[in-house]
Predict the 3D structure of the following.
Amino acid sequence: MSQLSTQIPEGYVKVFSRPRSLSDAKYTYCPGCHHGIIGRLIAEAIDELGIQERAVGVAPVGCAVFLFRFYNVDFVQAAHGRACAVATGLKRASPNLIVFTYQGDGDLAAIGTAETVHAANRGENFTVIFVNNQIYGMTGGEMAPTTLPGQRTVTCPEGRDVKLTGHPLKVSEMLAQLDGPVYITRQAVYDARHIQMAKKAILKAFRNQAEGKGFSLVEIVADCPTNFQMSPVEANRWVVEKALQYFPLGDLKVKED
Amino acid sequence: MLKGLVVIDRERCKGCGLCIESCPFGVLGFSGEYNSSGYNVATMVQPEKCTGCAICAQGCPDVAIEVYRLQPQGAKEAA
Ligand SMILES: Cc1ncc(C[n+]2csc(CCOP(=O)(O)OP(=O)(O)O)c2C)c(N)n1
């Protein structure tokens, strides 16, 4: 970026640039994918809290499988859905680490439901970033537990039939019923205002851990332009008009001490 | 009036157009130039209108945008 900066006329100062905790590697996500924004917010939170040296991420299986390449932060790659189990081990063995998992809805809410629910119920002291894009992105757009009623995917081309495949799983509502978690919130990143709110939620979830409070989960309702077969702008509109109707934003549980 | 300036990393830009859509002042547009991955990269088409608000950079999925603001004399760097 330094060679770009040389073109800046005198008197201009930098007000926005890549966070230090992001590496120089280019994201492998499709154009317009919200994974990229969420990844940046986590890096900014790590920078702001000054925890780069003791943060350890647990990468999922899904489009974010290469997450470890995108950060200047240590990472562990978990088997599909097992991020919360791996994070439990990491955090219990080394309580000084700041441990976070980053998981899609296929990873966290399908194959990894049990690990997630029990980690939350045990009140494990780590942070979960849950990217709910209502579809299996990496494998080509199959139906996820979070796919909306009537939403078309390659495995339900006529739209999800709730009589056949059930209703979208409301993970955050479910976990908020448990006594274990201290913070469960649902956010979105389709515009600058919501991106700022999501950033605040991620900061709070990391602070909770640093203060030893316990399990925090930030769900982010995201898009998947490629598999929705929409332009990035249309996919943003889908999030607002369709996904947020089923997955309303806000805090579902905030346990103050 | 605030004066701003954005620098878009051509090789990171995937031409998704979200910055163009989000800019409140119509500063950004497609350049018609393609990077080595074949993406039509975004650029400032009306640079004089940029205020340096960074809304484009906030929503850039590829973190490809740097934002600069003209500081009044004597002010300190914010970053
Ligand atoms: C044990 C196992 N089962 C299935 C798969 C195939 N698989 C890879 S990614 C994925 C789901 C990805 O969806 P999600 O977690 O929503 O992430 P996204 O790609 O949408 O970001 C599946 C089922 C696998 N890699 N390993």
In short: The CA atoms of residues 4 and 52 of chain B lie 4 Å apart. The pocket of thiamine diphosphate is lined by residues A 61-64, 80, 104-107, 111, 133, 135-139, 144 (CB under 6 Å). Residues 18-22 of chain B form the longest helix (5 residues). Chain B is about 10% helix and 30% strand.
